[in-house]
């Protein structure tokens, strides 16, 4: 994560922190408190800590909570000790990571709750913030969700445009089997029951039921009958999650976990010079 954090710091400090350098002399140690301003699930403490360490190798973070813990307004989450200039210059970058990741974990935990009692697992997608994927996908797992493929090299997923380019479902699967190593599973996105039948006949390992209504999805599950892993995608709203779990699909992928989760409001206060 170091190169990504360094890029974020460089974005915020192109040459120097003019305000901090004007107000604070070099070489002064200080402490500051990390506090929660709202309830949620914390995630990203290691990233938060590493941000300060990259600017001050002597920085320390005493943590009073762990990733996955529930926090409430006013809770003291950690105390950071470092060079005073480091604390002030890194504050926003460190909080940006922690607030974003904690917000994703909080949202994920809420949505996973709707699937309690079902076999269905909730997945993230590649709809992540550029250069934030490793952090955002980690936050999903802290919230109780699961990761879909990490990137385009990580797994085979034949989508609608691949199918159109290949000339059909069967053609796309055949081309993939010819090209990819036999150890790779093949997932295919289908939009109707005809495409579903073609995907099963062609030997797809995983079938993504894309933007289907509940009735069509139930019919699709019966047709698959355990011959492939099933995944639901598209129009996955909070209101539909329990219904989708009851249908019996193996996985639900939800881009909103990463692209629409609000941040968890956190703050750094009470800085004191040592």
Helix-strand blueprint:
Layout: H1 2-12, H2 18-23, E1 29-36, E2 40-41, H3 45-53, E3 60-63, E4 70-71, E5 76-83, H4 84-113, E6 121-123, H5 133-142, E7 156-158, H6 160-166, H7 169-179, E8 186-190, H8 193-202, E9 206-210, H9 214-224, E10 229-233, H10 241-247, E11 251-253, H11 256-259, E12 266-273
- Fraction in helix: 40-55%
Number of H- or I-type helical stretches: 11
Mean pLDDT: 96
How far is the first residue's CA from the last residue's CA?
30 Å
Radius of gyration: 23 Å
CATH architecture of the largest domain: Alpha-Beta Barrel
| Shape summary | elongated
CATH homology superfamily of the largest domain: Aldolase class I
| CATH topology value of the largest domain | TIM Barrel
| Poorly predicted spans | none
For the biggest β-sheet, the strand order reads 6-11-10-9-8-7
Order of helices and strands: HHEEHEEEHEHEHHEHEHEHEHE
**Strand fraction:** 15-25%
> Major beta sheet, specifics?
6 strands, parallel
Secondary structure category: alpha/beta
Number of domains: 2
CATH class of the largest domain reads: Alpha Beta
User: How many β strands by DSSP?
Assistant: 12
Task: Report on this structure.
With about 270 residues, the chain is α/β, with parallel strands linked by helices. It is built from 11 helices and 12 strands. It folds into 2 domains: about 1-105 and about 260-274, Aldehyde Oxidoreductase, domain 3, CATH 3.90.1170.20; about 110-260, TIM Barrel, CATH 3.20.20.70. The protein has a 6-stranded parallel beta sheet with strand order 6-11-10-9-8-7. It has a 4-stranded antiparallel beta sheet with strand order 3-5-1-12, with helices on one face. Helix 10 links the parallel strand 10 (about 230-235) and strand 11. The relative contact order is 0.17.
